Amino acid sequence: MKYFFILLADFMILVNSGVQDFKFRPNLPLGEYRLYFNSVQQCCQKCAIQQNFYFFKTSSTRVELRGNMSSINKAFDDTLWFRGAMSVKDKIGTWQNNAYVYSSPHAYKTMKSLLGDEFRVFLNSFGLNDTKQNIIPPGTYITKGYDLSNFPSNTNLPRQIFYGIYKYNINYTEKNGDLVACHMFVLEVKRPWELE
Ligand SMILES: *[C@@H]1O[C@H](CO)[C@@H](O)[C@H](O)[C@H]1NC(C)=O
Ligand SMILES: *[C@@H]1O[C@H](CO)[C@@H](O)[C@H](O)[C@H]1NC(C)=O
Ligand SMILES: *[C@@H]1O[C@H](CO)[C@@H](O)[C@H](O)[C@H]1NC(C)=O
Questions:
Q1: Residue 125: is its pLDDT beyond 90?
Q2: Ligand 1, pocket-test mutation among 47, 49, 52, 70, most atoms within 8 A of CB
Q3: Distance from residue 52's CA to the centre of ligand 2 (Å)
Q4: Which of 50, 127, 178, 193 has the most CB atoms less than 10 A away?
Q5: Res 106 pLDDT > 90
């Protein structure tokens, strides 16, 4: 199975290696990186699964994801689809949308593959456990703070990415495309030794 970010990284390598058909050309150096989590917002006020997340800086180098997830009658499970799109900031500060949208069935499994060992830590911070049934049942879950400093090392995210500022849009939908949850987050991919 291919992971969203790896796919995007592969895609960018493809683009970088001279394929002319894509408008999207990051023209950025590739390498090992540190992630800076700038912002996260929900893009759907009426969705069945609400994810009220925000980033909270606990020190100069540590950021936590805080907030809550809640749903009255919709489980987060493998009946849902994962759909992601990405934009990158170009040299003059304009977002370049990537026409490429990554869609994958089995939202739960996709998240789990992407986050690797961090998936369990993520769930635990909400008082949840990973289950064989691949399900987060409906309910309200408040995180005690999910420390993001183990990204990307403890995850399955690719080890090398093009440096830059990225905006990711991740939607969870029904198979027919109906929106169940929607969020956007902005990340900075920096060289490991770069200061803020
Ligand atoms: C969830 O987060 C939202 C937005 O921050 C807040 O308004 C709401 O009260 C929170 N719900 C719970 C149960 O903490
Ligand atoms: C996510 O849903 C929003 C709102 O319907 C839509 O504008 C956006 O294109 C969707 N993104 C993806 C990756 O499907
Ligand atoms: C998660 O697992 C721990 C340890 O096995 C257990 O104590 C806890 O009750 C479980 N929580 C849920 C929500 O199932």
A1: yes
A2: 52
A3: 17
A4: 50
A5: yes
CA distance linking residue 172 with residue 105, whole number of Å: 10
141 CA distance to ligand 1 middle (Å): 10
24-28, 36-40, 164-168: segment of lowest average pLDDT: 24-28
Across-strand partners of 37?
187
Residue 85 and residue 99: Cα distance in Å, rounded? 8
Q: Output the residue whose Cα is nearest ligand 1's atom 7.
A: 52
Q: Which pLDDT band, with edges at 50, 70 and 90, does 100 fall under?
A: low
* Nearest atom within ligand 1 for CA of residue 142: 14
The DSSP call for residue 8 is: H
Contact call for residues 113 and 106 (beta carbons, < 8 A): no
